[in-house]
Structure formats: C-alpha cells, structure tokens
C-alpha cells in the first residue's frame, strides 16, 4: 500500500480533514459528559431511595369483619333410606330404575313368589287338618263324659243293693273302679281337646307367617323420594340368611341437603348451631352456596392421630343441582361484626425498620397493637399509631379504639427497589 505524504495533500483537503478531527473530539467529550451525568444521577437516585424508602399502603375502612373456619365435607340427602329384602330368593321383577321418583307404598321389586305361595298353601292345609281334629277330640270328650255318667249310676245302684244282699262287695268295688277310670278318661279327652285347640292357634300362626313372607316378596317404598341407587338386576338371587341385602337407596327430599363436615379439634370451640356457612363444590367452582350449622356432634373421629368432630350443615337445594356424596369446601363463620372500623391484617403484622419510623408514641395499657401511617411531610418517615383490636377476622380486624380514622392510609409493606424506579 502506498502512503501519501501529508506535505503533498492539497491545502483545501488538509483543512477539511483537521476540522473533522476537531468535531470528533468535541463529540466524544460531549458523550462522556452525558454518561458521567447519567451515572451520577443514578447513584444519587439509588442513595436517595435507600435513604428514603417508600411503602405500600391500605386504607382504614368500615364494614363487615368476619372470622371463619374452613373444612371439607360430603353432601348427603336430608333422609336416606336403604331398602332391603328380608327374604332369600331370585328377583323376578325390578319396577324402578335410577333417579325414578317414588311414593310411599309404591312397588319397587318382586322376589320370586312361587316358593312362598307354596308355603302359604301348606300352612292353610295344616290349619284345616287341625280344625278337623277338633271335632274328633270333642266327640271323645262327649263319649268319656257319657261313660263316666254311666259308671256313677252303676256305683249308686250297687250302693243301694249291697245292704239287701243283692249286690256283692266285689261288684261294688268294680263299679267304683270303673267310675275312677271314667274320670281319668274324661280328663284325658279334655286335655286332648285343649291340645287340638292349641294346635289350631299354632297352625294359624304358621299361616300368618307364611302370608307375611309372601307379602315381603313385594318390595315397597317406605317413603316418598327418589331412587339414587339400585344394586340388583332381575334374575339375581338375594341371600338374607346372615344380613339384609340392600336393593335400593331412596333419598327422601333433595330440595334440602345436609353436609357432614369434619372440623379440627383446634377450631371446633366457637362453632355453634345457627352459624352462617358458605360452601363450594367442584361441579360449580364459580358459585358459592349458603347454609347454616344444624348440629355439632360430640362424638370425635380419630384419623392418623388427628381428632375431628362432625358438624352437620343444612342447606337449601331447590334446583336439586347438589347431588349426594359431592365434596364440599365449607367456610363456617364463627364470629362477625357489622359496620366495624377495621384495618387490614397486613398492616397489623407489618414491622418497619427503626430508621423508617418517626417520633415514638407510648402505648397505653390494653393497646398492644399498632399500625404505621405515612406522615404528611416529605421525609418518608412513618408514624406509629396505637390501636386496640376487637374481633380478629380472616382478612381484616376490628379496631375498637385507637388513633386512626376511616379512610386514613396505613403501611402494609416496603416497596421493592424495582417498584420505586420510574
């Protein structure tokens, strides 16, 4: 490459080249100055922000303060009846299916009736035999009574003829013996008659039991309701020797439901009948249902060392959208205050560094809680305000006394550096 001698550069071009060098130098100096100013401004901003922290605030409000308990439970029908069979046998017919409405006395199923009809016929025949035997026993009683009367007359006759020598002592003794035997025969005949009468009562009871069993082959609904479960099919055989087989489950009234919620022993204390309840189910995640505590059962349940108590919650279900055995997430309101002055719990928990707090305020007796409010000036300091709390709710707590007013901002947390940068 050939390097040109500057002495040989034309004067006009040399002046232009020197001017460009001076411009580039001034431009570099200007950019360096701007960069230095930006760095100084950033350092000053960071030091200012570090020295004067900013805080997020929430307003002191007035309204509803609630304390609640959370639990889970399952939806149950108000009354659920399990309908079973007292007899063993094959199911001949099924008259209802799932979700069918039924009324009290409606026929649900039929057990094969033929064996039980045969038992009724056998019991009726045995009763007829027993009744026929009564006539025979009554005739035997009449015969024995007649024979005894004859024996008594013979004895009287021998007693009258013996003094005359017409009847011997032997004949009289024989007549007396026959009289005694006649009495025994009559007593036996009466006993046999009573036995026959008792047999009639037994046969009548057998017939009644056979008819009852025949009636039990017709499975009927004990209540008005809806069939929510059917566990057998026609042709299946039920065996009732050791326990009653369940054929159907019938829910009495699904327009009202119960929720059996399990509440931990640490939370059960404030739960009382009549407490308002809200709950949700997974089938309708965006909808909240309402109910009330109906009963707190004293019997505890211990599962893996955890003690829980069953709380019965009653709720309306007019559209019958809530089905039995759905899982409900329950919120039981254990206490509430209407139109209360309150502070958010975040403000009550917030404890700023000592460097961010202004003038100290001595706490009076009973005012162990405090909130921090920004001061009107621009120094960024917080003012400690003593408060006395009432009901401590889930998100806000009641203020019953204190140096704060409705609508006043209180600090809840310090803003991060990223939040403070413009």
Descriptive account of the structure:
This protein is of the alpha+beta class and 422 residues long. It folds into four domains: 56-63 and 341-420, conserved putative lor/sdh protein from methanococcus maripaludis s2 fold (Beta Barrel); 69-77 and 251-339, Beta Barrel (Elongation Factor Tu (Ef-tu), domain 3); 80-112 and 218-250, Beta Barrel (OB fold (Dihydrolipoamide Acetyltransferase, E2P)), CATH 2.40.50.100; 114-216, Helix Hairpins, CATH 1.10.287. The protein is built from five helices and 19 strands. It has helices at residues 11-51, 114-161, 169-216, 345-349, 417-420, and strands at residues 55-59, 61-77, 80-84, 89-94, 101-102, 107-111, 218-220, 225-230, 237-238, 246-251, 256-264, 276-281, 284-303, 306-316, 327-344, 369-374, 382-392, 396-402, 409-414. The longest helix has 48 residues, at 114-161.
């Amino acid at each position: 490459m050939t390097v040109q001698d500057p002495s040989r550069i034309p004067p006009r071009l040399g002046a232009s080249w020197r001017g460009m060098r001076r411009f580039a130098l001034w431009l570099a100096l200007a950019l360096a100055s701007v960069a230095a100013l930006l760095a100084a401004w950033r350092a000053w901003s960071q030091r200012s922000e570090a020295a004067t922290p900013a805080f997020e605030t929430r307003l002191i409000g007035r309204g509803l303060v609630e304390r609640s308990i959370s639990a889970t439970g399952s939806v149950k029908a108000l009354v659920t009846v399990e309908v079973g069979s007292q007899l063993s046998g094959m199911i001949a017919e099924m008259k209802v299916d799932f979700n069918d409405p039924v009324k009290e006395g409606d026929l649900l199923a039929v057990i094969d009736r033929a064996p039980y009809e045969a038992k009724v016929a056998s019991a009726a025949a045995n009763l007829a035999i027993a009744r026929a035997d009564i006539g025979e026993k009554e005739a035997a009683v009449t015969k024995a009574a007649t024979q005894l009367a004859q024996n008594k007359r013979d004895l009287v006759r021998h007693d009258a003829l013996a003094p005359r020598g017409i009847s011997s002592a032997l004949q009289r003794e024989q007549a007396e013996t026959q009289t005694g035997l006649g009495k025994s025969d009559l007593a036996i005949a009466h006993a046999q008659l009573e036995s026959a009468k008792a047999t009639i009562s037994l046969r009548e009871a057998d017939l009644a039991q056979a008819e009852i069993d025949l009636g039990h082959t017709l499975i009927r609904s004990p209540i008005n309701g809806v069939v929510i479960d059917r566990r057998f099919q026609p042709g299946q055989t039920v065996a009732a020797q050791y326990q009653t087989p369940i054929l159907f489950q019938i829910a009495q009234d699904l327009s009202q439901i119960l929720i059996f919620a399990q509440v931990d022993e640490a939370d059960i204390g404030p739960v009382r009948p009549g407490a308002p309840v809200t709950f949700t189910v997974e089938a309708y995640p965006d909808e909240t249902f309402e109910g009330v505590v109906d009963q707190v059962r004293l019997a505890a349940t211990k599962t893996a060392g955890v003690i829980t108590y069953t709380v019965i919650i009653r709720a309306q279900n007019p559209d019958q959208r809530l089905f039995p055995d759905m899982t409900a997430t329950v919120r039981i309101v254990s206490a509430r205050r209407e139109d209360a002055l309150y502070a958010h719990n975040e403000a009550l928990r917030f404890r700023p560094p000592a460097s961010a707090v202004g003038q100290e305020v001595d706490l009076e007796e009973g005012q162990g809680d405090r909130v921090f409010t920004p001061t009107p000036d621009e120094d960024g300091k917080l003012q400690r305000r003593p408060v006395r709390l009432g009901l401590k709710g889930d998100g806000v707590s009641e203020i019953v006394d204190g140096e704060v007013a409705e609508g006043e901002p209180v600090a809840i947390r310090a803003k991060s550096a990223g939040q403070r940068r413009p």
